């Protein structure tokens, strides 16, 4: 929209003169979050060659749709909804903002949410960690900015050195982990959080099981809903080598309440993404 043109022109000028993505982001952060997101998913953009040269490309529509089931503006709506949850929960529970925070995207995938974090913090303070080498290869291919590292599928620690984070998030990660793997990930992330830091992660609600049965024409919902209600977790492993740690999972809030190093603060969710409920944890 026309109201964005002056900010984008300023950012293009800075990118042309400095070839520095960090300096170019300063005027881009004058945009609204939604306009920032729309611009970031437009890259490379022929109208802004200097910005296209210093900032990362958006992943292809094929990757977006294969990995997340949607692409373009429709997917951006979900991305922005979760980004706002992260920002709101950090402010609400810590009294601090995301600006200049050290941020961990745990299970970063191709970096669709990580790139929204540039709105708040410089790339040197942002880490993307994923257990899948193809995720990190895709991040590299589109020239994502920040720090990236490959974790174990069931991590004991994270390969981020002595970095401690103010904020961490995990979108659609714990929705797929076996209970033992989920606990391992909670422990590994906690090792790299400052005391009082906030971890926002998404889980599946119990209503996911009738939905997925209908989509896949399977008949698992009765058993899995009973497990969810009785034990706080239901897990349906995928076929293949990762079945013991990776599948489809639903969790209750009680799953997190007994952890000795995390405090359950509450939850949030968006109607843009019905089956992703955000759990808010505080490092204690």
Automatic annotation (TrEMBL):
InterPro entries: Methyltransf_25, SAM-dependent_MTases_sf
Keywords: Methyltransferase, Transferase
Domain Methyltransferase: 103-193
Pfam families, per database record: Methyltransf_25
Transferase found in the keyword field: yes
One term of GO molecular function: methyltransferase activity
One GO term (biological process): methylation
Name used for this protein in its record: Class I SAM-dependent methyltransferase
Organism: Aminobacter anthyllidis
């Amino acid at each position: 929209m026309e109201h964005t043109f002056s900010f984008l022109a300023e950012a293009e000028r800075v990118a042309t003169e400095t070839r520095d993505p960090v300096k170019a982001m300063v005027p881009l952060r004058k945009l609204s979050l939604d306009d920032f997101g729309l611009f970031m998913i437009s890259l490379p953009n022929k109208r802004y060659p200097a910005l296209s040269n210093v900032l990362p490309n958006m992943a292809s529509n094929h990757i977006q749709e294969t990995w997340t089931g949607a692409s373009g503006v429709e997917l951006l709506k979900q991305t922005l909804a979760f980004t706002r949850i992260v920002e709101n929960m950090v402010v609400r529970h810590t009294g601090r903002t995301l600006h200049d925070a050290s941020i961990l995207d745990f299970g970063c995938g191709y970096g669709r949410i990580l790139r929204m974090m540039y709105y708040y913090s410089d790339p040197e303070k942002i880490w993307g960690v994923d257990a899948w080498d193809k995720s990190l290869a895709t991040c590299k291919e589109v020239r994502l900015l920040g720090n990236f590292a490959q974790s174990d599928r069931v991590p004991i620690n994270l390969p981020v050195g002595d970095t401690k984070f103010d904020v961490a998030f995990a979108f659609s990660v714990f929705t797929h982990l076996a209970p033992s793997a989920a606990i391992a990930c909670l422990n590994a992330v906690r090792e790299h959080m400052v005391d009082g830091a906030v971890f926002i992660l998404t889980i599946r609600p119990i209503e996911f099981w009738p939905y997925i049965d209908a989509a896949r024409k399977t008949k698992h919902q009765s058993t899995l809903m009973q497990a969810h209600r009785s034990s706080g977790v239901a897990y349906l492993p995928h076929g293949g080598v990762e079945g013991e740690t990776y599948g489809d999972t639903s969790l209750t809030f009680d799953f997190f309440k007994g952890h000795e190093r995390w405090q359950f603060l509450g939850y949030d969710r968006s109607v843009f993404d019905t089956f992703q409920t955000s759990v808010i944890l505080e490092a204690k």
